[in-house]
Amino acid sequence: MSDTVITVLNVVTRFGKNVVHDGISLNVRRGEIYGLLGGSGSGKSTLMKEIIMLLRPQSGEIRVLGQNLLTISRSDAAILRHQWGVLFQAGALYSSLTVRENVGIKLKEYTDLPLKLIRDIVRLKINMVGLPEHAADLYPAELSGGMVKRASLARALAMDPKLLFLDEPTSGLDPVGAEAFDNLILKLREILGLTVVMVTHDLDSIWTVVDRFAVLGEKKVIAEGTLNEVRQNPHPVIKKFFRGKRGLIRSRNGG
Ligand SMILES: Nc1ncnc2c1ncn2[C@@H]1O[C@H](COP(=O)(O)OP(=O)(O)O)[C@@H](O)[C@H]1O
Ligand SMILES: [Mg+2]
Fold first, then answer.
1. Which SS3 state, helix, strand or coil, does residue 4 take?
2. What is the pLDDT of residues 193-243, one digit of tens each?
């Protein structure tokens, strides 16, 4: 079985005249936590949406779990979509549903499991992301920011995905909440054997959870590798990135 679960090759993306990606290539390996970094507007979310088949690039190739997304059949695409869970930037829980209903929605829609079993699975997932039992019956508006993220994560994990996509999961959380969320991701990767792709601009996350990452900039991948590899890169964007975020590192590590 291949060690590479996601391959992005020479991807070009345009919105009208706006060229967002001009030949992006990267690889995500099985079991790793892979970061997508880059300034605002560098095309991180767009690339993630292309990998999960919400958008189609103008050219290039994307392979996920051995399937070529440009040539995949409708029925294979439907199966593939259930191999991943996604946590979007805004969290995006249904506001009219409780946490329990949000987490269970895909199980109800896509499986024939008996309701009793769905209820048990949902309870397990809610427990797994560290939410208290009583949170199950709360509505999104009744949750703190950190709880919304955890509930969204429980929903993303409902169908036991192999891949987990996270778009800026720690944005909007305070440093303590962000660190707790990062640790949760590490724990879940280990327990569930997940491969995780995480869009982030949080340098602390790169320090603590991300195994390898790509830095997007100037419509390209400026650098890819481990933290130590990328830090050696003399590109001005990389230098600026590591210089500019130092204060943040100190603040989360407490000095
Ligand atoms: N659906 C869309 N239609 C038109 N332009 C878009 C769309 N989505 C993203 N863009 C543009 O693509 C660029 C990259 O956006 P995005 O991927 O959201 O960046 P990032 O997530 O790195 O901040 C931006 O210039 C943005 O305006
Ligand atoms: Mg984004």
1. strand
2. 999 999 987 777 888 899 999 999 999 999 999 999 998 899 988 888 777
Distance, C-alpha 78 to centroid of its chain: 20
How far away, in angstroms, is 42 Cα from ligand 1 center? 8
Check if the beta carbon of residue 102 is closer than 8 Å to that of residue 140: yes
What is the position in ligand 1's atom list of the atom closest to the CA of 55? 1
Pocket test residue of 21, 36, 46, 168 for ligand 1, highest count of atoms within 8 A of CB: 46
What's the 187 CA to ligand 1 centre distance in angstroms?
31
Residue 49 CA: nearest ligand 1 atom is 17
CATH code at position 28 = 3.40.50.300
DSSP state, residue 43: S
pTM (2 d.p.): 0.92
Total domains in the fold of the chain: 1
**Residue 238: predicted pLDDT:** 87
Q: Give residue 83's domain range.
A: 4-253
Question: Do residues 60 and 9 lie in contact, with contact meaning Cβ atoms separated by under 8 Å?
Answer: yes
